Amino acid sequence: MTRVYRSLSLPARLAIIFVVAAVFMVAAVLIALADGVGPTFSSFSPAPGSEATVYSSGWFTVSFAATDPDSINGSSVQVKLNGKSASSSNIRVSYREIGHWEFYYDWYWVVDGYDYTQATISADFSGVLSLPDRNTVWVSIADQQNNTSTTEWTFNYDKAPVISNLAPANGSTVTTLMPTISAKVTDNGTID
């Protein structure tokens, strides 16, 4: 190998040196771009410490945003509400659209592609008709380099007030001009 190299002209030797140096420089840049850190989180819903309501449909949705320069690995997402995992079919990962507006009788958005470094994730939990007063959401997500991040946040469940001990009782007949009217109202928070 050394004889072959020595038999080359000086410009050919310099070209080989530059090519090898360029390969090492490109490798160094690629290694530097892989940050070794998992995705960062933002835009939590329900917001940490907030009051949330469960609707009569029995579905409850949590969502958050994730960003990472190494691209989000959508298949790595895990979401738990009070320790119960959302099924993978109920987790949606929406990457930021890259596009432009065009006019053809009206303005419309044309999607040119997706920015895989930014995603909004939402998870639906079915069969949730009620929640405890305090709730914890735990999430885990990785980037394309398998750097994983986890976080959790808590929110409160805003239950509807419970009305009991009605007087006079529902459906009863009042025979006095000034009956005593009362009810007991309980709530897990402040009654407005």
Give a brief rundown of this model.
The chain has 192 residues and is of the alpha+beta class. The chain has 2 helices and 11 strands; from the N terminus they run ααβββββββββββ.
Please explain how this structure is put together.
It is a single chain. With 192 residues, the protein is an alpha+beta fold. Helix content is 16%, strand content 47%. The chain contains 2 helices and 11 strands; from the N terminus they run ααβββββββββββ. The protein has helices spanning 2-7, 10-33, and strands spanning 40-45, 51-52, 60-67, 72-81, 84-85, 91-103, 107-125, 134-143, 148-157, 162-167, 182-186. It has a 5-stranded mixed sheet with strand order 2-9-8-4-5, with no helix packed on it. Strands 1-3-7-6 form a 4-stranded antiparallel sheet, with no helix packed on it. A two-stranded antiparallel ribbon has the order 10-11. The chain is elongated, with a radius of gyration of 30 Å. The mean pLDDT is 84.
List the defining traits of the structure above.
192 residues, alpha+beta, five-stranded mixed sheet, four-stranded antiparallel sheet, 2 helices, 11 strands
Uncertain ranges: none
Number of strands: 11
Q: What amount of the residues lies in strands?
A: over 45%
Q: Determine Rg (CA atoms, Å).
A: 30 Å
Percent of residues in helices: 10-25%
SS class: alpha+beta
Query: Largest sheet, order of strands side by side?
Result: 2-9-8-4-5
Q: How would a crystallographer describe the biggest sheet?
A: 5 strands, mixed
> What is the overall shape?
elongated
Oligomer: single chain
Number of helices: 2
Summed over residues and divided by their number, the pLDDT gives a mean of 84
Distance between the first and last residues' Cα: 86 Å
Order of helices and strands: HHEEEEEEEEEEE
